[in-house]
Amino acid sequence: MRSFASDNNSGIHPAILKAIQDCNTDHTVGYGDDVYTKRAIELFRQHFGQHTEVFFVFNGTASNTLGLMHATKTFNSVICADTSHVNTDECGAPERIAGIKLIPVPNRNGKIKPADIMPHLEGFGFEHHSQPGAISITQSTEMGTVYKPEEIKELADLAHQNSMLLHIDGSRLANAAVALGLPFKNFTSDCGVDIVSFGGTKNGMMMGEAILFLNQKLAKDFKYIRKQNMQLFSKMRFISAQFIAWFEDELWKKNAQHANSMAQKLAKEIQTIPQIKITVPVEVNGVFAEIPQHWIEPLKKEFFFYTWNHLRNEVRWMCSFDTTDKDIEQFIGLLKKFSHSE
Amino acid sequence: MRSFASDNNSGIHPAILKAIQDCNTDHTVGYGDDVYTKRAIELFRQHFGQHTEVFFVFNGTASNTLGLMHATKTFNSVICADTSHVNTDECGAPERIAGIKLIPVPNRNGKIKPADIMPHLEGFGFEHHSQPGAISITQSTEMGTVYKPEEIKELADLAHQNSMLLHIDGSRLANAAVALGLPFKNFTSDCGVDIVSFGGTKNGMMMGEAILFLNQKLAKDFKYIRKQNMQLFSKMRFISAQFIAWFEDELWKKNAQHANSMAQKLAKEIQTIPQIKITVPVEVNGVFAEIPQHWIEPLKKEFFFYTWNHLRNEVRWMCSFDTTDKDIEQFIGLLKKFSHSE
Amino acid sequence: MRSFASDNNSGIHPAILKAIQDCNTDHTVGYGDDVYTKRAIELFRQHFGQHTEVFFVFNGTASNTLGLMHATKTFNSVICADTSHVNTDECGAPERIAGIKLIPVPNRNGKIKPADIMPHLEGFGFEHHSQPGAISITQSTEMGTVYKPEEIKELADLAHQNSMLLHIDGSRLANAAVALGLPFKNFTSDCGVDIVSFGGTKNGMMMGEAILFLNQKLAKDFKYIRKQNMQLFSKMRFISAQFIAWFEDELWKKNAQHANSMAQKLAKEIQTIPQIKITVPVEVNGVFAEIPQHWIEPLKKEFFFYTWNHLRNEVRWMCSFDTTDKDIEQFIGLLKKFSHSE
Amino acid sequence: MRSFASDNNSGIHPAILKAIQDCNTDHTVGYGDDVYTKRAIELFRQHFGQHTEVFFVFNGTASNTLGLMHATKTFNSVICADTSHVNTDECGAPERIAGIKLIPVPNRNGKIKPADIMPHLEGFGFEHHSQPGAISITQSTEMGTVYKPEEIKELADLAHQNSMLLHIDGSRLANAAVALGLPFKNFTSDCGVDIVSFGGTKNGMMMGEAILFLNQKLAKDFKYIRKQNMQLFSKMRFISAQFIAWFEDELWKKNAQHANSMAQKLAKEIQTIPQIKITVPVEVNGVFAEIPQHWIEPLKKEFFFYTWNHLRNEVRWMCSFDTTDKDIEQFIGLLKKFSHSE
Predict the structure, then answer these.
(1) Mean pLDDT, to the nearest integer, of D32-45?
(2) Distance CA D170, CA D195 (A)
(3) pLDDT of C342
(4) C275 & C198 share domain
(5) Using CB atoms, which residue from B24, B29, B58 is nearest to A58?
(6) Which pLDDT does position D325 carry in this prediction?
(7) Per the domain annotation, does B293 fall within a domain?
(8) Is the bond preceding residue D140 a cis peptide, omega within 30 degrees?
(9) What angle do helix axes C237-247 and C251-270 make, rounded to 10 degrees?
């Protein structure tokens, strides 16, 4: 089966799997007190700054929910795009687990701006009102777009001026780094970002996410929170080794570059098909497009994908580290066949 | 490094790793809607009964906490041994996540009996009092002992007579099965157990635990609870494939048998050392012993392990699927050297 | 001090205070097992139907939060108007205490319609998505408007068609009953409403709110939830006696009628002042109006009130059971003085 | 009906009721921003120290649960007597609401000592273990005994040496003050106590409890927590006025003195009845005694009370501010009649 459903429908990159295999020797103290974890943390610090505190967790829901939880109090609200994963796809984990009130604001191709947030910066000090505590953005966004460093800085400044924090859901941060052509640090720590929920799973790892506290103070006591919230991995080395392989030899970059370029290729070919309209600028590894409704079901049988907006027949096609030229060509071939037979 | 610290200081059994590798082909729908997961669930049903509902989670804390949470209401209490992992080693996850009040009762070599529980079966219907909702036992126990089927049945009957449920923390259920010489079903479903938190990680898997609702009704809506509680794995096939390999060819049995027999070997040799006193019957893969205090530090440098009770200089030595005869021999050699030099 | 700030800035109606006094004799079993509470519950059943289950709590935040909590599961969402008290004025209690995800939808003078809700009735069965579990409306609304019975029925039907419940925040239900000229039952139980958070405090009581489960099954185990959530009053008779006095002699109706008519009077007089624009139809006891910005501060010094919308200089003037003709006249006098001096 | 069931089966002291009446004039800003609340807080500061931060809540469950919650983190444990109200009579509110793990230790007539606590001061820094965060004691205790200031100081010192806090459940603190013959300050602030859950309801108030943060820093942000946890009273003046009346003219002292002396009288008379054995020293307003089993039911019909320990036929008789000499005499008369007829 081949699919454009999600970058997590792919398997494990061979180099990652090899890393798991290579560290599978002998006994190792559990729960992260091991050389692999030390090394992986060191690598994160090289990419995000020496003051970064790093905690590995199992998945993105945990990474987002616990990152936001530790940065806020239960009476805080978190302002985010209405399209954000924390708002739409965590089954209410931020509310239930962290006690957070999310304030979704309208997005522009998945992004939000200070002007969208400002009307909600109110009620400070008024105990009846959830106190604005953080802004959360996704980089790259759920709509396949990318914030520029100056946009991020503007949001971080707005947050800090109001004693709030800026959180990034970075489940696809690597794709953004590649699109921007910038090191991670340039559009996170350097812009004043406070917390990053950093994802490896969607970029070739088996599983593994990292909560990065870019401000050391924010990490206080987090080790208890991770354990209590059921995210402490006993055989931690097997996440750590993946991240090591992923950073060394710049595998993260190669994987992200590949996925992004496959999406570009797909987008380019699509422009030749008159019945399809690309709805969002293709900046990373996803293509959003409106297609004729009666194409959807037969297409899905060949290459699985998700309908994004049922009302508009908008679909999402995600490319991955292992999407092949052949995948794109066969899929485009299929689309063209549909197109010509009309 | 070799250690007797915990059965989770071991790595991955080669056959498990091979299974991960073998399923690492192509794209697969995420979150468990795949053939590997279907097969793994089927295998669980073969071992626990056709009505078993199976949900994979990342670790034991989640398996225990969410299993108990879904079986109780927030105003329930759960009665357990004071030595139980849920009481001592989850950093308060049952209280914080599930809202449960744990009622720890004194243990007998890690086990509890109806007589220990009965004094706490009170206050039913009285709204000031946490309502007893479940009994939780560990099989095999944290002290390396095993409940007999009739003991489990007796506890299940007591629970059901009081409209409560019986939960088993089965992070080492395989070791118990081997020690009893019985199929899983005989000392779980057949005895009236309601929920099992079933562990693979400590018996040769990379990671993977399963929450088993032996009574189908108890599983209602659990899929939302797993997701909301940050335990839904996107690339689920990589847990499922491990369980498949683990059940097929009875790897679970071989691993557990090996670990148990290594502990027997260790215990047998220890009896020849006069300064060491085994404190708990060795029924599975752990040996508890009081040793001279000044031996502890130098010993730990060679083979890492944990002190169980600092006041009594009681230590715990755990054997694993990959503990070797040589490990035992070297360790015993060391102990004898200490012994003779006194 | 006189004010139009809120109907809870008033004190206790003398008949209510007398009822507290009258029941202050002798000893009474605590926590609601007393004759006053039995009688008060009976009176609620006369007004809402014989199957109503009644639980008294201390305040409106508790009444809303625990009512919604008991009617939903942690993975449910609750759809409400963006202006609803549960969304704006509970400091995130529904999220933190109940684990609910609120989905605020745009209001029309404080009210919502099926068309506003329907776009959010999606993702059923999809575990990534908070499952729509209830619709919550406020009667009378925070904007001083009233749902007609047929509008409520339409919302209840929509809810039930989707296996959801309909909840009413009824902190001012008495004002709505008076405005509609209908018994409570006609626009609650008879329309299919499932739960009412019923308020007495804003209509002349010292304090006292009731969670009404109009469907008996929904009340199961709620007594434990009330206690655990810190809302069980030991000297319960002192809430119950208030409700008895409030229902007997129709004090609730007299108080609400008075408050509503004072708002009508205020609104009528205001129409003669050209600089003021009433922004919402005055249907119960509140008047919303845009006034010249520079009037606000000096006015507040004489009669305290709240600015509702700072951007539009919209203010809220609430009338209460104890608002007097003189209050209105003096206030109007003041407004006219401002008006003429321009 | 007359009863010895609990000091909360009494009504409201007339002076308290008068205070409610007296402040029932005119409009007052809600939620505590009023002169009554300012005055009540001032009075608390006179009794507990100028740095005391004072928050009124509705009942004792809230006072204990939220006081402990704000002083600890979710991963903390709280050590308390097994007989403590937080452990036995809050239906698990500390666990569910505050996420706290309670560690009950054996009591000595309701009291605990450093030696009882010390074995649980372990696992600091070890993320698997709930981190000891506070000690909670009850003054006067649930068994009707009183801690001496030096005993409290010893516990506070132990707590602080371990970076923990000392909390007092003071639902009957007034009775202790009277028994000790000391101002509140001498056995709270002066001994290093950090938080007091202070009760008025059991000593003649209609309702009203105060959370006292004796260390100002601990109170940070608590106003949001009170609101979010459903404990903010809109018509706050009606709690505040009660506390004013209670402190002025030393009503608290008179009430507590009376209740205590009635218990002494009861205890003294009981000593003449050979079939009754007083089981706990009578230091405040409760008498615990073992009585013949067949007396219990007929006695309860005349004067309601609770059986404390069913196994030992131990009953609890509580005296209150409104227990009369006649109550005692009639009850003793009844007991003597039972005694003589054997």
Answers:
(1) 97
(2) 10
(3) 85
(4) no
(5) B58
(6) 97
(7) yes
(8) yes
(9) 70
Residues of D in contact with A226 (CB under 8 A): 127
Residue B255, pLDDT > 90, answer yes
pLDDT of residue B207: 97
Assess whether A101 and A61 both reside in one domain. Answer: yes
Residues C181 and C203 grouped into a single domain: yes
AA letter at A180: L
pLDDT tens for A168-209 read 999 999 999 999 999 999 999 999 999 999 999 999 999 999
Query: In the listed set D249, D267, D287, which residue is the last one of a domain according to the structure?
Result: D249
**Domain match, B264 and B208 both:** no
- Number of separate domains in chain A: 2
CB-closest option in C91, C127, C131 to A128: C91
pLDDT value of residue A334: 95
How confident is the model over B184-188, as a mean pLDDT? 98
Assign residue A296 the CATH number of its domain. Answer: 3.90.1150.10
Residue D140 within a domain: yes
Residue B73 in any domain: the answer is yes
Pairing of β A53-57 and β B209-213: unpaired
Name which of B93, B163, B153 is nearest B131 in CA terms. B163
Q: Are C118 and A311 in contact (CB under 8 A)?
A: no
User: Same domain, yes or no, for B183 and B291?
Assistant: no
**Any idea which residue has 């007299």 for tokens?**
C254
pTM recorded for the entire structure: 0.97
CB A252, CB A205: distance < 8 Å: no
Q: Are residues C182 and C259 in the same domain?
A: no
B248 pLDDT tier (thresholds 50, 70, 90): very high
The verdict on residue B165 lying in a domain is: yes
Best C234, C319, C324 member to test D by mutation, with max D CBs in 10 Å, is: C234
| Boundary-marking domain end, from D196, D231, D249 | D249
What's the CATH number where A195 sits? 3.40.640.10
The minimal CB distance from B75 to the residues C31, C73, C228 is found for C228
Both A243 and A271 in a single domain? no
3-state secondary structure B178-207: HHHCCCHHHHCHHHCCCEEEEECHHHCCCC
User: Domain range for residue B185?
Assistant: 14-249
Residue count of chain A, please give it.
Answer: 342
Which residues on chain D are in Cβ contact (under 8 Å) with A131?
224
Q: What is the ipTM of this complex?
A: 0.97
DSSP state of C246: H
D18 CB burial (10 A radius; 0-12, 13-18, 19+):
middle
CA atoms of D273 and D284, how far apart (whole Å):
21
* Residues D245 and D308 grouped into a single domain: no
Q: Which chain D residues are Cβ-neighbours of B130 within 8 angstroms? A: 91-92, 95
For the residues B9-28, what does the mean pLDDT come to? 96
